[in-house]
Amino acid sequence: MEQQLQETQYLFVGKIMKTIIRKTMLYKTGVEYGDYTVNHVQGCSHGCKYPCYAMMLAKRFGKAKSYEEWCEPALVSNALEILDKEIPKLKDKIQSVQLCFSTDPFMYGYDEVKQMSLRIIEKLNAAGIKCTALTKGLLPIELRNLSHDNEYGITLISLNEKYREETEPGAAPYTQRIAALKALHDSGCKTWVSIEPYPTPNIIEQNFEELLQAISFTDKIIFGRLNYNKRVTEFKGYKEYFNKLAYRVVEFCGENGKQYHIKTGTMVEL
Predict the structure, then answer these.
(1) Measured on CA atoms in the order 118, 119, 122, 128, is the torsion positive or negative?
(2) What is the DSSP string of 65-105?
(3) Which of 38, 21, 20 is nearest to 29 (CA)?
(4) Cα radius of gyration (the chain)
(5) Are 123 and 87 in contact (CB under 8 A)?
(6) Helices 111-126 and 79-90: angle between axes, nearest 10 degrees
(7) Which residue, 50, 32, 94, is CA-closest to 221?
(8) pLDDT, tens digit, 9 for 90 and up, residues 175-215
(9) Model confidence over 134-152: pLDDT tens digits?
């Protein structure tokens, strides 16, 4: 078996975290954030209800039986030992490693996950490997002490806390995410924001300009539409809507000297 449950458990502020072991940690991926990824946690306590693509894949491949099970994360206890074996074999092939593709490296309220993530990034950096990290938790200020080639990002699809509580119930409050990202930016780190999965107005009415202004300090913006939700296609003119916002991201980044990336399928020909 690729992994097995361990009896060891970690206690965090009333939360008990299971552990698992795996045989491999570095996976090749085709995502824009990095050509390899590390997923040192199975599951995610943020409980996103867009729905969550990672959770859907986990159910499909038998990694989780239900939403509730997915929201009870398990730490890969032997992640560092595996990396010690894999890094020497792969370091010349890797351009960058993304933390994480199917979980969150700085899961809100789980210090053990944060500490493991910091040690993984430090280990990869020591081998000359750049890392990128994306979170709905809080980016720790300790990241400023690691390689400044790394890039750190947050997911931010709204400034409305009620909407966060409905769709990302276990994730960090939006204002705290932004503050943690800005602290790293002000420390000289490369930062970015993923505005994805962005909802249509029939799901929530919001001011896109306010969102852009709230992250105007960051170095890069990624924009992507909400998928796998029938309410999006129920909104008349949804294709035109996402095209308009995507063009605005491109325009905003051009005006302010920022990098940008529009996710595939967000901007379409009409």
Answers:
(1) negative
(2) SSHHHHTS-EEETTHHHHHHHHHHHHTTT-SEEEE-SSS-T
(3) 38
(4) 18
(5) yes
(6) 20
(7) 32
(8) 999 999 999 999 999 999 999 999 999 999 999 999 999 99
(9) 999 999 999 999 999 999 9
